[in-house]
Amino acid sequence: MQRRLLISLLLLVATVSVQGQELIDVRPSAVVDATPTKEHNPTKALLLSIIPGAGQIYNGQAWKVPIFYAALGGVGYMVYSNYTEMMMFKNEYLRIGYNGRSTLDDYSDYPGSSIYNLYQSSNKNFQLFVLITTAVYAFNLLDAYVFGHLYDFQVSDDLSLSLSPSLTTLPATHHAMAPTLSLSLFF
Length: 187
Fold this sequence. Notes:
With 187 residues, the protein is mainly alpha-helical. Helix content is 51%, strand content 11%.
């Protein structure tokens, strides 16, 4: 009995027709300006964003500019720091060789093989932060381009979903006048 009830319920759900209905705006219309409006161009936002933040300003999102500059400044500092450290270890290794002892103040007890390992580690970190810097800059470009496309996208402050189920009959063109459950969605 439960199996038949479940199958019947599944068949009923499968035959539900979902109808989208257009919501009519009854608010008074806004005053229409006769001057032509200039269209927002996402490609221009992308090209302006070659200078980090300029595309965001063009898109009206100036609040993002300090975030991008802080991110670029942070990873830029790490690139510089790891590069100078890498060059210091490289020069020290080339000067003392594999079997010598380091003359650097903080690394005087380190053999040449350890200095070489420190050089390799700094080199990997340098390359990693170069990639991160490139990713942050690319994200700056992508952000300007995507939000350039979304500039004219209007979203209501009232984002609600209203469900109103109703029971309707099929038109006379069908062979049987079977009732159909209809679900209307209002956005």
